[in-house]
Specification:
Elements (H helix, E strand, L loop, with lengths): L2 H9 L3 E5 L5 E4 L1 H12 L5 H7 L3 E7 L2 E9 L5 H15 L4 H8 L3 H11 L10
Antiparallel strand pairs: 1-2, 1-4, 3-4
Helix pairs in contact: 4-5, 5-6
Length: about 130
């Protein structure tokens, strides 16, 4: 990535992370780096997953027909519902998907947590602990 490209991405309020075709992180601007630092503190090393849990949206990067990587774009701020969803998913990530532990940390019942996950379309798969 050239100097001008980095300067432009660094100036954005929105988080941007660029991954090569193998899924390795190539670049993250300051807002994305802050999210990644928080992800490490909650115990995940998968940068792309951490950014997507933080509300990031993956976008394929192409040069013509050739896939050259992927960018994850993170909005600077979302709605209150977006922020709630983000906190819930981050807590689930930190608890290894254990719903009871996540609910305890969030100060809500498991039923409320389950309803929120259903509302946001993030119902855990059968392998997730309750």
């Amino acid at each position: 990535m050239d100097l001008m490209g980095r300067a432009v991405l660094d100036a954005l309020d929105r988080g941007v992370a660029v991954f090569d075709p193998g899924g390795r992180l190539v670049y993250a601007n300051p807002p994305a780096r802050r999210l990644l630092e928080n992800a490490e503190s909650i115990g995940t090393s998968d940068a792309k997953q951490a950014l997507q849990v933080s509300g990031g949206r993956a976008v394929p990067l192409r040069a013509g027909e050739t896939m050259i990587g992927e960018a994850v774009l993170i909005d600077a701020a979302g709605t209150l519902a977006d922020q709630e969803r983000h906190v819930i998913l981050e807590t689930l990530l930190a608890t290894g998907g254990r719903l009871a532990e996540a609910a305890r940390r969030l100060g809500i019942s498991r039923t409320t947590l389950w309803r929120r996950l259903k509302m946001y379309g993030d119902v855990p798969h059968a392998g997730v602990h309750r």
